[in-house]
Design a protein that fits this description.
It is built from 9 helices and 11 strands. It starts with 10 loop residues before the first helix and ends with a helix. The longest helix is centred in the first third of the chain and has 27 residues. Keywords: DNA-binding, Transcription, Transcription regulation.
Length: 292
Amino acid sequence: MSRRLPPLNSLRPFEAAARHLSFTLAAEELHVTQGAVSRAVKGLEDHLGVALFQRLPRALALTVEGKVLLTGVTDGLDRIAQAAARVEARAHDLQVKVPPTFTIRWLMRRLIRFQTSRPDIRVRLNTGWEWVDFDRDDFDAGIVFGVGPWPGLRADPLFEERLTPLCAPSMLDRLATPADLARCTILHPDSQQNEWRAWLELAGLPDLDVDRDSQIFDTQDLAIQAAADGHGVTVADLSLVQDDIAAGRLAVPFPELEARLGSYQLVSPRHLADRPALTAFRDWLLEEARRS
């Protein structure tokens, strides 16, 4: 839409002069000469065809037209300043979509280190297993699980998933071989059961009935907690349970068998990938993944 606007470079001098009722003070505020302010105001008056100031011997006074214009210009400059502040703040904010279990068991306890080292960057996490939709949602990046490639996205692998059964230490004596799983309650981290099927295929037991005595959970974290509480055996990524294993809350009955379905990756639209805040977060995240 085409707008009929006065010369925009004259509005700040006018606003400053109207606020101070002084060309001299306006010039000092804007770091220009008094003559530059006077010429800008005169040009604005010529464009509008009205006088905006009464030039008194020792003072300025706004005309009726000047007061009307000042109200509009002040409101407009305030809105511009507010919008600019939001844009500037946005440059230091990161909206990141992350899987719930990955966030709880790996990211959150590490993120404090990033926030401490880079307090100028605010990382805002949104958890969910749904695929991050950059066209629909206002995300700068997402952590996803898969194998890619994803057209239009930059993808940086963090670490590969290492799937293996997990149970409470008290259940270890019941699991001498993978076939003993047939006598245990199977805890599924989701309804699709892909993780268990992949591991059983690796273990040479593709026909083992994982539905006979089983429970299905909404998240992997709940299945892991149920296993730690002794309610059965789940399958999960070893990278997400290292603390539980070290603390003796979980045990790995078959450490020699690890199925791999994909990896966790940081993805972002290519046009956002080089944002300084995102670059700093990516570099930190990749280093954390390497160290883990």
